[in-house]
Amino acid sequence: MKPSLLVTRRVFPEVLQALAPHYELEANQDDAIWPRAEFVARASGKDALFVVASDAIDRDLLATVPKLRIVATGSVGYNHVDVAACRERGIIVSNTPDVLTEATADFGWALLMATARRVTESERWLREGQWNRWAWDQFLGADVHGATLGIVGMGRIGSAIARRARGFGMRLLYTNRSPAANESELGATRVALEELLGQADFVLLVLPYSKQTHHTIGEAELARMKPTACLINLARGGIVDDAALARTLAAGRIAAAGLDVYENEPKVDPALLACSNVVLTPHIASATRSSRLGMAMLAADNLIAFATGRPLPTPVA
Ligand code: DGY
User: What is the CATH number of domain 4-99+289-307?
Assistant: First the structure.
């Protein structure tokens, strides 16, 4: 008898086709957002879960799924899965590193450039019919070339962003728990967060979310940034205190922000929505077809490896 698998969100058909020979599938075909009670009811009795970053796999859920043996998340971030609680119950967890690195790094630049050069703000203004003449001082933005980029979290995605920064002739600072192996190749200098915040023209966040990194950027950290600086968050909601950021942006204490992730997504703090100097995107940094298909297929590969008794390609350490 095949093990049972719940796929919580609509996924590419080829991914379900790959899984079908190995699992009794219950797949969310219409991409409905299940209320928690419905999710718990559907998960109960399953051997395997294929989840995404918005599905909380916590102790409460685990208490209701005694048969569960594997949780494959279709994301590189796994802060939504209580890995320690899974381990206590002998449940394996896998994620999807590498396959999204380059697409996410590309998007980091898209967001940084859009923020620096006020792309969405000026487009909104144009669409509103406000453009009736060219002017010397229209939508003056920040220079990216030659500026100082501060990357907070120099993992795979941070390094891929740093490689691209060389083409812009930028000075590169970073923070990380340990020195990056490719530090000299990247021409990057590791500094303390306080120093990075005080010197960077662009502060780019790509660190994983955890209790320890909650509100890494709050009121005090924002106050350390240059008034001309931009903050870019590609990492996870909760790393930035969104309310503090909205106050800082509204007061013009930093120039601008570019955000792809939010504390209560998909809800965005109305105070952020009210700021014109923030570029807001809906958690799409990895959203190219090849990257998203790669992520979903890698999650499926982990599930198939489990079902066929092979080592998982990307278990969470
Ligand atoms: C990830 O892979 O962690 C992305 O944020 C998509 O959820």
Answer: 3.40.50.720
